[in-house]
Amino acid sequence: MTIGGEDWRRLALCAQVDPELWFPEKGESKRAAKQLCRRCEVRLPCLRYALENRVRDGVWGGFSERQRSRMRLADAERVIAADPPRPEKRPDGHRPGCHCQPCRSVEAGSVA
Fold this sequence. Notes:
The chain has 112 residues and is mainly α. It has helices at residues 8-11, 31-38, 43-52, 65-69, 73-82, 101-108, and strands spanning 2-3, 6-7. It contains 6 helices and 2 strands, in the order E-E-H-H-H-H-H-H. A two-stranded antiparallel ribbon has the order 1-2. The chain is globular, with a radius of gyration of 17 Å. It starts with a strand and ends with a helix.
């Protein structure tokens, strides 16, 4: 699948980290992989790929093997639409685009 003429896998955050994160051993936590997925702009194409190709192993689109086994594509689209990508927090704890007063002051160049 391509997005704007580019393969979605090139845009995926998972391509930037250790592949072992996406395929934890039995009993190991999948939390870190799922959290990274929640920040990714291509979650839906990733999940769609896993569902359409019946991929059994690993975390795809932010969902574990067990979660995907109970999911239909229509469910996946609804779930991801309700949970858009979340940008990583900045060191000050705020997210890019935050509109609180301190962030607006910093953006305006009037740091107190």
